[in-house]
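Sample pair:
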Amino acid sequence: MEIVYGPVSSWRLGRSLGVDLICQEKGKVCSFDCVYCSLGKTTELTTKRRVFVPTELVARELKKVMGKVEADVVTFSGTGEPTLAQNLGEAIKVAREISGLPIAVLTNSSLMMREDVRGNLAQADIVIGQLDAPNEELFKRISRPHEKIVFKEVIEGMKKFREGFKGKFALEVMFVSENKDFSKEIAAIARTIKPDEVQINTPIRPSPVRPLTPQELDEVKKAFEGMNVQLVYEAKKAEVKKVVGLKKLRQLKRPSATDR
């Protein structure tokens, strides 16, 4: 079981050392089954939180790795939705103590309506949420959520979290063919959430759907005028010299330093 992997050269976070609190060797555990996910179909679609990886094991693996690699941030991501891990909050605290680095969490925002989840996420320095649709219909087509998840509640959850969060809250919008013509509507919702940054993305890793071209994303970007926007095609990537967790990197379809 590889819990810690990377660092990867992240267009958003620099040299990002990953922590996978879900740790599935095949498939993924998630509250969404997004059409564009590079991991393929969700093998367990759920909203139930539980402990997948004990915090003690996370601590042990991080202690082995720190000093071997150079990283700018520790990022909770991997083979599923990190907020499904019941020990996310304590794992964040442990990761900060051991690494001395800022802590980021990549989340699909589906469970932010829950107070316990917002409390866990509040332990991080950077939280990147997700907004891929402007309405329930498109939400179901693109994110393919668990039946208990309602689009309006996801938006309200993000607003509540944003109001109380003292760190950096960014909003990732993954644009594909199905939502590229709804950029104005998505931007209007993003403005009500008031993120520190909007990250305009498209599936540049291997994906079941095609990525948008740089020209298409440039058109999309216009709808977010006046907001702090970062575009995947314009971002510079940090150089990574040495990595750990090669099997996990291959599973996540992330290039390693040796692939460059």
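Strands lie at 4-10, 14-20, 29-30, 44-45, 73-77, 103-106, 126-130, 168-174, 197-201, 229-231.
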